[in-house]
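quick one before i forget lol
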Amino acid sequence: MTMNDLFRIAGEFRPVDTIADVRPYGAGNINRTFLVTCGAPETERFILQRINSHVFPRPDLVMKNIRVFTAHASRKLRAEPLSGNRRWVVPEIVPTLRGEDAFLDDDGGCWRALSFVGHAIAHDILKTPEHAREIGTGLGIFHSLVSDLPCADLSDTLEGFHITPRYLEQFDKALASGRRMDFAGFSHAVRFVETRREFAGVLEKARADGRLSLRPIHGDPKVNNIMLDETSGRAVSMIDLDTVKPGLVQYDIGDCLRSGCNPLGEETEEWELVQFDTAMAREILQGYLGEARRFLTDDDMSFIADSARLIAFELGLRFLTDHIHGNIYFKADFPGRNLHRALVQFRLCESIEEQMGEIADIVRSYA
């Protein structure tokens, strides 16, 4: 895709003669993302994305969910402003010049635009205990804003998302193909999965037993999806709203802990050295539960430690399956990238297992 193509597509959302710059933005594994800067009549920036139709076959439902969420959250913030003069920004859909939520290009690709969260930054890795606490606070604010949004108002845009037993079935089918097995670490990864099969259904069983219930979730609460005010360092927004849908809040809590408590990061070359940082977990949970404890049940609390372990295992399983398939879901810059990512997550899962008692004690201390 040429720069002229990008300017033309951005011109579907703002008059093309006002667009000053279009450049790649962020490091997401799913959608193609660009930052658009407009220079007249006044400077404006917005996020332009091509939605990955392989991952999201119904972009219209993705956009509907975002519109439902933003309308609900904005109304709630107007009625109940956050305490302590905290700034919180809800990203808004930037409609096309025709008033539509998205634009289809000549190849059928779906492009959408969202407002840019200004004066804010994000980091891939937690920097300080204060940063960790704000990450937890940000997720807690998000969950509080949607805690009274009926799940019936949201579509299930990713059927089976975070249902770990289904990912296990997909892995089994991929493994039976016999492809891409001659990579270093592949046998270790397969053995890791085989020894944890029974654990894969822990959250779904709790839901089936009536202990956990569906609520609106973010779906991808990684550290770099929670924006911090560039001056105060306080959480000010959650971005990347494609996966907003009904789910278990444990998916989000577990993913936030998984993402935040690995100091080496998801792309580290030294997967054997990965460790789960319980000190950072304590800070994340302090921030999160300070906002969310009022609507969490005792059962919700009791599955937090399990959720951190499960989501690390699940993501590793997904990376491994995608490696076998030939990297059709997650972007890969070299042939073994997704296998390597799987090994990072499996080592993180193992580290969580080694510290499950301590993590459970941290949760109980905020009960």
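fyi DSSP finds twelve helices and eleven strands in the chain.
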